Amino acid sequence: MVDFPEVGEARFQAEVLGAQIPVIVEFTNDGCGLCRVMEPALASVAQEYDGEVRVVKVDTDRSPDLAERYNVRSVPQLFMFVGGELKARLLGMQTRGAMAQMIEANLGDAA
After folding, report:
1. Cα gap 54→76, rounded to integer Å
2. Does a structural domain hold residue 1?
3. Residues 7, 35, 66, 82: which is the catalytic one?
4. pLDDT by residue for the chain (111 residues), tens digit each?
5. Can 100 be counted among the known catalytic residues?
């Protein structure tokens, strides 16, 4: 399993909204079985787009204010931020192809 960095409320502004490259945020928690199933696909996409996109996690149990701010009511959810702006959101378990499609659709916004 890949160990993506966890970002909480204190670092979200700098590491996600202020990032120089697009950021995929996986909203998750320790009890999310679908998140663990989706992990290999997310790791594959992170490796393919290494240097172009960063992947981080937000644990909804440890960062409930972030979950509320982005209206996360269930996990997993993937958000793509480009230039500090929320550009895309995928709800529920996703395939590698769906993740790659989200990234490709929004990478041009990073230029």
Report:
1. 17
2. no
3. 35
4. 567 999 999 999 999 999 999 999 999 999 999 999 999 999 999 999 999 999 999 999 999 999 999 999 999 999 999 999 999 999 999 999 999 999 999 987 665
5. no
